[in-house]
Write a structure and sequence with these properties.
The complex is a heterodimer of chains A (585) and B (71). By secondary structure, chain A is an alpha/beta fold. Chain A folds into three domains: 46-215 and 250-281, 2-enoyl-CoA Hydratase, Chain A, domain 1, CATH 3.90.226.10; 289-478 and 536-580, 2-enoyl-CoA Hydratase, Chain A, domain 1; 485-524, no CATH class. In chain A, strands 10, 11, 12, 14, 16, 17, 18 and 19 form an eight-stranded mixed β-sheet that branches. The longest helix of chain A is centred in the N-terminal third of the chain and has 22 residues, at 24-45. The radius of gyration of chain A is 27 Å and the shape is globular. In chain B, strand 4 (29-35) and strand 5 form a beta hairpin. The termini of chain B are close together. The chains are: A alpha/beta (585), B mainly beta (71). The interface between A and B is medium-sized, with 19 and 21 residues.
Chain lengths: 585, 71
């Protein structure tokens, strides 16, 4: 298949002098917006105690542990700004992402021991479940850096119980193990109660000599018999008991290495624990990347930073999607699927680090005379029409057959609406695409370049595709909402305006409400809001998009559950034959 | 030699970025057309001098209408 993959047709245009000049303002706006996002990330990194204080105690912080264990240049953070319950701590208190350990991809997650010694907080279990789901979808190991003091007891009602509460990750660990996905845990510090199960539920436990894990900690043991309230005498008694337990916390290495043997390995130094995990990673199954590569990895022919000029931060300005994609894929080369059909959508095969990936994205701007073919109105990119929906369904189906991971790029205002569009079957075709995605069983990633709106946000590989979507990225230009805020205000208040007018009343109060609703939409669809609520798994710099694509492709091809021999793929042949037929015409 | 700049789509002129007589480079923005809630910038197809702009802000244009001429 060399002739198909080694030299694909080039695409994309180099920036002209005029382009650089007229996009300077956009470039600066992107830079400014990305600075704000980086500042928010820094706040999370600096949450809790300062690094020096943790180091003075002879401990490393979670960030230092991550930096030590993950291979340089491979850390791909996710959920950094996720904080759906708006915790005062500014974090869900776990840090996670994709990273290579000993040259193998893993989902890595650790408790932030700077914040309440790694306590359970609201929103944390949802964050953990995103990490376990990611390991499952990509079929790669989950590596834990456990250091969990248990629940923040004063807020337990927010996270302890419930279907996706703090106990659910323990079942997910069991599920991963039953799927053949190992969960390795480096264990530090005091891990009572919830922390105990965080420690015991993984597959192999690597312990620091000063760590402990237990069903309950000193606090629980000393206060275990409720007596209808507290008195000063009881408090004195508690002081005594707590002192005793502090001196000898339950579940130390003496118990769980020497006696129960739950800890498989014990290490004197913090770094040695991580070295132990790294050594173990070498023993885990993974294909050599060469097994799946279709060509040598190649950098794009154009600079990644160009995307900061090519993606207009102003949401109404049209742009050339192909030019952006050309900055993200190997050699700026591709094989486009059905370029003469469904012009609002790009579908094509590209390579990332030599791995074959399928890319799908919204094109922008006027789509030409006579399109959409079923209507008498003009078509504009970002919207989905009949041909685009059909093309995506076909393409995804072929990708499923050829086992090619899919990378989606959304900048969509929705699916065409109205009775003409209904007659063109768009409602059914949207759901058909969902069906195609679900049945493909493929891992997918999504980057929401700008707008993710209406049902189009779902059907184009959105995070709602739980079984497929590994992670969803936002950018500094991302805006996710069911519709534009002003459209929503009209939909909500149009009839009310008519009533007020008919009654001869002042329209101003309704207009104020309309403006308030439009403002609310704006405030609740910003990149930072989307990241906080988990609508995206991370907001990334435009220049880092390719890094995430590399991590996704590498992880997706590390240990796939099913494979298609390269020489038995049909999609590359369909594309080439179609292009040859067109050339003859 | 002169080159006509034509409207690639129907819509409304929402802004002019250059004036007649201005020296421009290839790919400079000449004007912006709004249609279907989206703004489509129109770029200079070549470097030169803007000899004529035949539309003004707020004008409605049809596809293939003449917008400007570059010498």
């Amino acid at each position: 298949m060399k002739s198909y993959f080694e030299n694909m047709p080039p695409f994309g245009k180099a920036l002209k002098k005029g382009t650089i000049k007229r996009t300077q303002n956009n470039y600066e706006q992107v830079l400014g917006a990305e600075k704000q996002i980086l500042a928010a990330v820094d706040e999370v990194k600096n949450a809790g105690l300062p690094e020096e204080k943790i180091n003075q105690r002879g401990q490393m912080t979670v960030w230092q542990r991550l930096e030590y264990i993950v291979d340089p240049g491979t850390w791909t953070p996710l959920h950094t700004l996720f904080n759906p319950a708006d915790n005062v701590e500014g974090t869900t208190n776990v840090i996670d992402g994709l990273g290579k350990i000993a040259a193998k991809w893993a989902v890595v997650i650790g408790f932030d021991n700077k914040v309440m010694a790694g306590a359970w907080l609201a929103g944390q279990s949802e964050n953990i479940l995103r990490a376990t789901d990611l390991a499952k979808r990509l079929n790669i190991p989950l590596v834990w850096l456990v250091n969990c003091s248990g629940a923040k007891l004063t807020e337990q009602e927010k996270f302890y119980a419930n279907r996706r509460g703090s106990g659910t990750p323990f079942f997910r660990h069991a599920e991963l193990e039953q799927d053949g996905i190992p969960v390795l845990a480096a264990i530090y510090g005091t891990n009572p109660a919830g922390g105990g199960y965080q420690s015991i539920s993984p597959t192999v436990l690597f312990a620091h000599e000063k760590c402990n894990m237990a069903v309950g900690g000193a606090g629980i043991v000393s206060g275990m018999a409720p007596q209808g309230g507290f008195t000063v005498d009881m408090a004195e008694d508690l002081v005594q008991k707590a002192k005793e337990h502090r001196a000898k916390p339950p579940g130390s290495v003496a118990t769980h290495y020497d006696h129960t043997g739950f800890f498989r390995f014990v290490y004197k130094e913090e770094k040695q624990v991580l070295d132990g995990v790294r050594e173990y990673m070498k023993k885990l199954p993974a294909y050599d990347p060469e097994f799946f590569r279709v060509s040598e990895p190649k950098a794009p022919a154009f600079e990644a930073e160009d995307v900061m000029r090519l993606l207009p931060i102003a949401s109404k300005t049209v742009y050339d999607f192909d030019d952006i994609l050309a900055r993200l894929v190997d050699g700026s080369e591709h094989m486009e699927y059905r370029p003469d059909y469904g012009p609002e959508i790009y579908t094509g095969l590209c390579r990332v680090d030599g791995f074959l990936v399928a890319c799908i994205g919204n094109r922008q701007g006027y789509l030409g005379k006579g399109y959409p073919e079923y209507a008498d109105y003009p078509g504009m990119g970002a919207k989905l029409y009949r041909q685009g929906l059909l093309k995506m369904s076909e393409f995804v189906t072929f990708c499923g057959r050829d086992r090619i991971p899919v990378i989606w790029f959304q900048d969509t205002s929705g699916i065409d609406v109205g009775d003409i569009a209904e007659k063109a079957e768009l409602l059914g075709l949207g759901q058909s695409l969902i069906y195609s995605i679900q049945q493909s069983g493929l891992p997918m990633m999504l980057a929401i370049l700008r707008k993710g709106t209406a049902a189009a946000h779902y059907v184009m590989g959105g995070p709602q595709a739980n079984r497929n979507n590994a992670f969803t990225l936002g950018t500094c230009a991302t805006e996710i909402c069911v519709m534009h805020g002003e459209t929503a205000a009209v939909a909500t208040y149009a009839r009310r305006l008519v009533k007020e007018k008919d009654a001869g009343r002042d329209l101003e109060p309704v207009v104020e409400k309309m403006n308030a609703l439009a403002r609310k939409y704006k405030d609740t669809s910003t990149p930072l809001y989307c990241a906080k609520q988990g609508m995206v798994d991370e907001v990334v710099r435009l220049a880092d998009l390719r890094h995430y694509m590399q991590s996704f492709a590498g992880a997706a091809y590390q240990n796939p559950k099913s494979i298609c021999p390269q020489h038995q793929m049909i999609l590359p042949r369909i594309i080439r034959d179609h292009a040859a037929a067109k050339e003859k015409e | 030699m002169s080159e006509d700049v034509l409207a690639p789509l129907s819509g409304k002129i929402v802004s002019l970025s250059v004036e007649p007589g201005a020296a421009i480079e290839e790919d400079d923005e000449i004007l912006v057309i709004e249609a279907m809630k989206m703004e489509t910038p129109i770029f200079a197809p070549c470097s030169g001098t803007v000899s004529k702009i035949v539309v003004k802000e707020g004008d409605a244009v049809e596809e293939d209408d003449l917008l400007a001429v570059i010498d």
